[in-house]
Amino acid sequence: MSSFSSWRLRAALCLATLASAAQAQNAPQLDTVIVTGNPLRSDEPVQPASVLAGDGLVLHRGSSLAETLAELPGVSTSWFGPNANRPVLRGLDGDRVRVLSNAGASFDASTLSNDHAVPIDPLAVERIEVLRGPAALLYGGSAIGGVVNAIDNRIPKTALTQPGGAAEVRLGGAARERGGAALVETGDGRWTLHADAFARETDDLRVPGGRVDNSASRARGGALGASYVFGTGHVGLALDRYQNRYGIVVEPDVTVHMRRDHLALEGEWRELPGVLESVRARFGRTVYEHQEIEGDGEVGTTFSTRGSEARLEATHAPLGPLRGVLGAQWERSDFAALGEEAFVPSTTTRRTGLFVLEETPWPLGTLSFGARAERVQVALADDGAPARRFTLASGSVANLWKLAPNWSLTASLAHSERAPTSFELYADGVHVATAAYERGDPALRTERGRNLDAALRWSEGDSEVRLGVFDARFSRYVTLAATGALVEDLPEYVFRATRARLRGVEAQAKHRIAAAEWAFDLNAQLDLVRGDDLARNEPLARIAPARLRLGVQALHGPWTLAAALTGVQRQSRVPATDTATPGYALLDLSAARRFDWGLAFVKLGNAGNVLARNAASIATVRDLSPLPGRALSAGLRVDF
Questions:
Q1: What three-state secondary structure class fits 211?
Q2: What is the pTM of this model?
Q3: What average pLDDT does this structure show over 138-146?
Q4: 557 — alpha (psi -120 to 50), left (phi > 0) or beta?
Q5: Residue 193 and residue 237: Cα distance in Å, rounded?
Q6: Tell me, what DSSP letter sits at residue 92?
Q7: Which residue, 16, 189, 322, 561, could crosslink 554 as a Cys pair with Cβ 3.0–4.6 Å?
């Protein structure tokens, strides 16, 4: 890989070329309306957001939610092998990124440890929305770094009068995936019913030079849902189950058996008379458990969570030019860990929040502002010690300027607060997945962050250029740091608070060229983030390096041929306790054909069979589980 300066030069030339070429397009641009973090349904929300849906989602589906999103701007993955990984947004992960299912909490153990998977399978998802940057205003302190919302139609929102559905099958890939999903919906104009099921099996992941031991998986699940749909709203419920069995790559003889049962009730009422124009309400109950099974069949450790949540949003009638939404959110989760690796005690966490978001036009564009007050209590379940209580306050102000018909400028300033988690407070024991003795700090205080985000966007027809910058500063940033001591012959790591700063750039450009019967879409994407521990004057750990992605799509009738080259810079900005990760370049090829009844595709990933390692992974697993090697996969989706 070349130096950072060379990267910036090449990226700037690429973006400038595409931006110049984009001036030739004159067709109108239709934007996708973002739902997550956009309760007022603004056409162009201020917060940076990405959406995967339709054919794009089908072609990008991976074996996990994080792998599915890994090519989006500002998104990387923690990558604890092919099964257990979480999205990382702008260098932030764990409890700072809120993973939601239909805007509801997932109540799992994935934030506790890198070897714990997110219990949401991409096969069961119809749309994924990603908010980059703080979303604590609407979703609480655990969204201080962003939100990933997996959306399905298990609670139908529209009336149906005849049956319909879809089925999808996927084969191949670096883990020899065999997967499929199907859904059926029907209704009588009032009642709408939904049923879906999915299953996926994989072998050990193939990488250049070999395989990743104990990385096979077997996942399955499904859901039943029903709604009563009326002229101005709907009310419904859904019950779903997710099961997964997968190996832990750092422990060759340990397998996780996971199960999650979830009940959701949801309703929406629009066009109400009086002060409130619309009301949305949601309640969810989750029972989650996973057991870590030793090679002899004995249960080593059991993690379980029982969680309940309720959320209410109401849009008020306009107050002059002012329109807005106010809401309340309540959560309770009971966590327990039993067994030889139970390094975190049983705890109960309660969260209550109130929020308001307002928007108004003014001479300088569209101004939005909001605030949230939140109360969090973390208590040990089997101890007489007093609970830790945190009072959190978050606020934001943002503006959208329409500089010209095709130009817009957005800027936002946010203050967000997060309460320490139960494991940051009370962890005390050997954590095999990280090969460390981890110790919490019961005296940790509220984590606070200030985020400045600005973006310039130009769009016309099928062409678009967006250049964004961000700067996030944290006081009392909670991090897991080495002490240099040994406990039970393992290095000791403690959760401590420090001052931190993360800043970066996200740039995207796309442009369509028409030539005879063909059309060519040119794409470029650059993202980079720099993270610093200001108290120790050293880089933050596990920050993804600069990444440049160049792609082209050739479209001819129902055919789409695509090639993308992703270059990732060497990550040498690491703390003293880590080592540098080499850079790499990956070439991906694909072909897809759309039919009246669906979509068929074939993909060749990592065509050069390049050995690549993920700098955002913990050092324990980085060498054990490189990224996938060369792999051919195919799939078919049928809509009816």
A1: strand
A2: 0.92
A3: 94
A4: left
A5: 10
A6: B
A7: 561
* Structure confidence at residue 28 (pLDDT): 30
| Domain architecture of the chain: domains with CATH | 4-639 (2.40.170.20)
Amino acid at 326: L
Residue type at position 623: D
User: What CA–CA distance (Å, rounded) separates 579 from 403?
Assistant: 46
Judge whether 529 and 547 are in contact, CB under 8 Å: no
Residues 68/156, Cβ–Cβ less than 8 Å: no
HSE-up of residue 341 (Cα within 13 Å, Cβ side): 21
Tokens coding 247: 């190996």
What does the block give as tokens for 127?
Answer: 């749309």
Rg, the chain, Cα only: 24
**pLDDT exceeds 90 at position 568:** yes
How many angstroms separate the CA atoms of 459 and 26, rounded?
A: 10
* Cα–Cα nearest to 434, from 283, 577, 605, 632: 577
- CA–CA distance, 288 with 267 (Å, rounded to integer): 24
End-to-end CA distance of the chain: 47
Q: For 571, which DSSP code? A: B
Quote the DSSP letter at residue 578. S
If one counts every other C-beta atom within 10 angstroms of the C-beta of residue 200, the result is 21
The whole-angstrom separation of Cα 413 and Cα 396 is 6
List Cβ neighbours of 113 (8 Å cut-off, separation of 6 or more).
431, 433, 434
Buried b (16+ CB within 10 A) or exposed e, 244-264: bbbbbbbbeebbbbbbbbbeb
Cβ–Cβ < 8 Å for 115, 433: yes
Say if residue 166's pLDDT is above 90: yes
| Alpha carbons 524 and 536: distance in angstroms, whole number | 36
Of 381, 377, 301, 309, which Cα lies nearest the Cα of 116?
301
Cβ-contact 561, 591 below 8 angstroms: yes
CA angle 121, 309, 343 (to 5 degrees): 70
